[in-house]
Amino acid sequence: MRELGFTTIKTRVYSPWPYVSNSSQLSYVAGWASADPPETLNLFEEMTMVVEGIESTFLLSQDTFKDWFQDASQSYAKLLFADTSRSGFWNYVLATTEDSLHDEDTGNDITQFLRGTNALYGYDQLSDWRLSLADLQTAAIIDFLSPMNLYRKRALFQEYKSFKTFSPSFLQFKGVTFFPDWSAHISPFGLYWQIDLWLKQNNHVSRYFININSGLFKAKIRHTLRQSFKIIAATGYKSQGYVTSYPLKEGLFFQAGVSVDLLH
After folding, report:
1. pLDDT of 9-50, one tens digit each?
2. 3-class SS at 105?
3. Global pTM?
4. How many CA atoms lie within 13 A of 169 on its CB side?
5. Which of 64, 179, 204, 258 is the most exposed place for a label (fewest CB within 10 A)?
């Protein structure tokens, strides 16, 4: 937001269940941010601001799952944090009504996203929209039924019920642990799907995924040299189109980096 020229940025985080004193304090979102926009902001930049909150919290959820998948154990607090982060998309969508689409002065990030994304493609009239609220509602339900979401909710229930850390039993085949997943995503260019396959062998975790509508395939490997030091490498291919944090053009790519845990 600061890079685009926003000022007076404010954020608020809501406490999820069961850390609220009464039901009136429950919220369908984990929090919100507000700011004074710059004088000049094009439609694409506006759409980027609308989707970045939902997408960034999803990345937090996925990163937390990566640790859970590798360690096969996670605290209730981390599970709850990841569950709240993952729920942003479908909570927002399912709380949006058709009536809010008709009034530009009301609504939330989802209504702004639908108006802006359709406008980017020249569909300004609600009756002409190519991406509708019904499309997002269907995507939200499918996203809610994803293996990662259901498995995490099962773990939350077990830990809340027994007060013991839930140790998941992931699928295994010939010494390789694996976990498939799918997720719905929004971008300034519309709705797209991501299919993931997590693999672990000899405590080395790799993740393979493909973005439907964007044509990206990526393999990522984390190699642990010591408990606090890891080498991370990824390679893949991307077709022309939008994928978060990647160039729009088509081609092969390679990424490399290191991870240092300063707490050990």
Report:
1. 766 665 555 555 554 444 444 556 667 777 777 777 777 777
2. coil
3. 0.71
4. 0
5. 258
Residue found by looking up tokens 């930049």 in the block? 45
Joined together, the tokens standing for residue 85 give 């982060």
Instruction: Of 206, 235, 236, 208, give the one whose Cα is nearest residue 222.
Output: 206
Instruction: Please tell me the distance from the alpha carbon of residue 185 to that of residue 190, in angstroms, as a whole number.
Output: 8
**Which of 240-244's residues contact partners 24+ apart within 8 Å by CB, and which partners?**
240/215, 241/189, 241/213, 241/214, 241/215, 242/187, 242/188, 242/189, 242/192, 242/214, 243/211, 243/214, 243/216, 244/55, 244/185, 244/187
Beta strands in 79-203 (DSSP E): 171-173, 176-187, 190-201
The β-bridge partners of 181 are 196
Angle at 106 between CA 122 and CA 111, to 5 degrees: 40
Residue 238 gets the label, from left (phi > 0), alpha (psi -120 to 50) or beta, of beta
What would the DSSP string read from start to end of 199-245? EEETTEEEEEEEEETTTEEEEEEEEEEETTEEEEEEEEEE-SS--TT
Which pLDDT belongs to residue 224? Answer: 64
Residues 6 or more apart in contact with residue 63 via CB below 8 angstroms: none
